[in-house]
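Can anyone check this?
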Amino acid sequence: MATQKEIRAELKKLNRQIADLRKELHVISPKRTRRNYNGVVLYEGPSLIDNAPIVAIATGLIWPSLNRKTGDMVHVWIMRADTPPVEAFYTDRDKSVCGDCPLRKDSEGNRICYVLLHQAPASIWQNWAKGEYLPLVDYPEALSLISRKAVRLGAFGDPAAMPFELALPLIQGSLGVTGYTHQWQKDFALPWRETLQASCETEREAQEAVQAGWHYYRIISDYEEARKEEIFCPAKTGNTQCSTCGLCDGRSANVVTVVHGRGKRFFRRRFGNGDAAEDADEQVKGDEEDSALW
């Protein structure tokens, strides 16, 4: 196990690498950089998944989100620091923020996750690379803005990739928190157990999550697959929005939703009921354009 001194040395090394990256991107002087106060940098450092450099950015501090499913929330995006999201996807560097999530692209290039990387993630990453977002230490007003809203951890990327203690100001100071992790079986994710839902795709995984002390969020192929003790996502049934629901807070309930979006048929092929889904080649619509479900 690495010592504190070795960890600090590694952090300094990664910070130098990030600084060099910004120079390569021709970032202009901070005195001339246009500041974007709608977002704040929560974390820059090694991923707890593979130690590669990542960055976590919270957006929606000032301007309301247009996401109809979630409502007006602060959204936290976790991305590779040294690689734009689309490039990270094609080079498999997204593993640093997605881990072993089964919704990533498979060996044939099929991807279930419907986050549109070329849209919000790409734009936010570019803003950060240009130095538009201040770190939290230089933007203390951010916490006051966050306190007025609920927080969605992991609009893209797995929150467990970043240290839990760095998310505490958001968890303790906001109106509520929702989030999901596919890393729930890993020791480094244990501090998140009462904050995030364990992301599951099968009944067996869901049962294992419960036995490990987690509440879960399970994706199913059809409404009939839901168990009696599970609650259908109210935001998907149209009864409420994530910003006011709060069930996915790691403590309240085991929630399910029916898979949808462009990855629907790949999900059903991978996890069952594939023959019934050949006609399900629908496109991502409306509230899915800037968001991830898990």
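Reply from J.R.: I decoded it. The radius of gyration is 19 Å.
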